Amino acid sequence: MSMKSYYRLWALLTALLSFEYWALNYHTQLSVIHFLQAHFRSMSSTNLSTAAGRPISYLLGWAGFGLILLTNLYILRRKWAPLKKIGTLPGWLNFHIFCGLLGPTLIVFHSALKVRGVVGISFWSMMIVALSGIIGRYIYVQLLREEKLTSNEAKNWSEKLERLRISSGAAQVTTQDVDLAKELALNFVGFPEGGVAAQISLPRILFESLWGDLRLAFSAPPPVPGLPEVSRHILAAFAVSRRRAVLLEPFRKMLGYWHSFHLPFALFMYIAAIIHIISALTFGI
Predict the structure, then answer these.
(1) Long-range contact list for 53-56, CB < 8 A, 24+ apart?
(2) In the chain, what are the domain boundaries?
(3) Which tens digits make up the pLDDT trace of 177-191?
């Protein structure tokens, strides 16, 4: 399952949970759970309150914590030989991230947005881990291909653009026009100035790369004047390939720093969560 599909599933489930939470608190008659309660005797005595300590809150909490535990399957897949034969590593990573998104989402509803004391420590640790996981996945994607492959890919896109220029029959479009459009496309996707990444800080590289990809999600670089609109998409693919080739080493460094940050917070999150669970079961807090 692709990451885009997982994101859509997460967004859909979050929307459904949000509606159900709103319905239970403000318009009970619109709630799906209320409807089920009215038609199934086994649910007739179920407390529909979303407050902490009630059945719905407990269910969301356990489900959220269970999904967070499932994120560790990705680590097992990498380390344990029998699991290495099942699925692909990118596929497991996508599932890992999906669980890391949906789990905290359920915990947010479980907490009813009341995060104090041990609950607050566990909650914010979880949110930091979830956010850093998204960033970590972005860094990982930048490293999927070797520098030579990304450089060749950029070269292929450049050649495709040149063929488009020749085949279009637009004699007024010069190679200088194409070169200028390439420069604009590189700036559009966050390519480092002068093509030298060593002189730029890692946080700035990450921010500009993220900003460039966010812009690409909603638009594309300006087309080559005189060439068809498809030149915009060719320029975008060329620019992203060039950026990845040049920024490969900085992103490798980022991944190392990311592991140093993400893993301790993940461990701390589990410790705080276990303390919270024991306290809730023992003292009802």
Answers:
(1) 53/280, 53/284, 56/24
(2) 3-144+258-283, 147-252
(3) 888 888 888 889 888
